Amino acid sequence: MQFDVTIIGSGPGGYVAAIRCAQLGLKTAIIEKYNVLGGTCLNVGCIPSKALLDSSEHYHNAVHRFKDHGINLTGVKVDMAQMIQRKTDVVDQTCKGVAFLMKKNKVAVYHGVGSFIDKNTVLVTKADGSTEQLTTQKTIIATGSKPITPPSMGYDKHRVITSTEALNLNILPKKMVVIGAGVIGLELGSVFARLGTQVDVVEYMDRILPGMDTDCAKELQKTLKSLGMNFYLSHAVTSVTGGKKDIRLTMTPRNSETPIELTADYCLIAIGRRPYTDGLGLENIGIQTDEKGRISVNEHLMTPVDGVYAIGDVIRGAMLAHKAEEEGVLVAELLAGQKPHIDYNLIPGVVYTWPELSSVGKTEETLKAEGIPYKVGKFPFKALGRARASMDVDGLVKVIAHKDTDELLGVHMVGPRVADVIMEAVALMEFRASAEDMARICHPHPTYTEAVKEAALAATENRALHI
Length: 467
Prior knowledge:
This protein is an alpha/beta fold and about 475 residues long.
């Protein structure tokens, strides 16, 4: 078979690239290693984790908050098997949606491992061992990432697990240790904590969510601690041993040599992800990966091999589904002769705990390092009528603007539905708006978005109205 473009990997980057290529008239093929499309995000990442986050939030509210609303319940309990089944149903529906989109856009789908014979020939090795060769003018590598599992952490997929296995636990653990206080560790840790599991989080750094806004991270940590999560910051894990029914974790504080031991039903390894390029045959076309396993690309996302592109988790930048999607569209449009553009500074990041945390643009730490003068405005959700009405008073909005020009440089927030609220900041920053522009927009009352207006007012001559 001959194609204009072949995409290896069907996650958000791959399948969106395939759709856009097909829309632009390119004869397109997509290769997926597994039986279902959607990649990590749809199958064992974004979608299933959000399904469980919502389910656990409903349960926690029913047990702890409904009474305050005048709703009295008795006998509320977790049906873990049903919760997992609902998650599985959501995943199944979403993946079937991707398959439908491939058919609708006339994208040829191949299931098997895709590998390069040369830059214009891709071999598809199917599950039964049979093979098929595709001839292609252009290729997009979109194979995503896998969890990092160092040998010292004893990953066994049974008691020492990653997010993949955690999303399918049919019995609620009494105790869980999470290694890593990044996005994945906090999201999944909060799922089990809300359901009643005792969760201990071990983090090598001295804070949660390294790289994100410090004020928002501290605010989120306070809320997670009130949920019952314990944090061992500045601790180094030295070993994890999994048994038939439990695990033993040994760690050492960074300011001490005295080891500490924790036991739990499960240990969740969430220390990051690595680019997944295994079996691609990159050596056959002369592509080498860097020390982190990433593929080098130029500003057009083309590898050193002409006509071979790479997007998403296998290249530089944040490992985010929406970043991969934008890169997939960019490559497709470049191949069609258009001139697309991505502003990587304006790709928002979100942590789907409750409250949520979202961020776009520069942090204070980055601006200090770059020597850029700035000013800050903050507004707490507890001062907002809408937040009090819904009992979601934890968190704040933080607006950072240039000290001299007032241009918005970064917006960071932790609070209710801020995963959606952040898009106001993204849109305004895309058009290089000022804090005053943000403050003068009329926001509906009562809404969570009023906290954005108030924070912008605070950054504009310190004139917030409701605090």
